[in-house]
Amino acid sequence: MRGTSAGVAAYWCKVLANSRQLVFVMDTTRRLVAVSGGLADVLGVDPEQLLGRSCASLLHGDAGAPSDCPLDELLLDGEQHVVEVHSDVLDKDLLVTATPLSYDGDHVTHVLHVATDVTEPRRREQALRESESRLVESQRLAGLGHYILDIPSGTWTSSPGFDEILGIDERYVRTVESWLDLIHPSEREAMATYLDHVLRNRLPFDREYRIRRHSDGGVRWVHGLGRLEPGTGGTVERLFGVIRNVTEERESRRSLEKTTALLEEAERLAHLGSWEWDLRSGVTRYSEEWQRIYGVAHDQNALHEWLELVHPEDRDKAAAAIEKAAREGHWYRAEHRIVRPDSGEIRHVESFGRQVRGDDGTVDRIYGATLDVTERVEAQRRLRSTLAATVTALSATVEIRDPYTAGHQQRVAELSDTISQALGWDHERREDVRVAASLHDIGKVVVPAEILTKPGRLSVPEYELVKSHAGAAGEILSGIEWSGPVMQTILQHHERLDGSGYPLGLKGDAIIPEARVVAVADVFEAMVSHRPYRPALTPNVAIAELRDGAGRCYDGEVVDACLGVIAGGFRFSQD
Question: Is the distance from CB of 301 to CB of 284 less than 8 angstroms?
Answer without folding.
Answer: yes
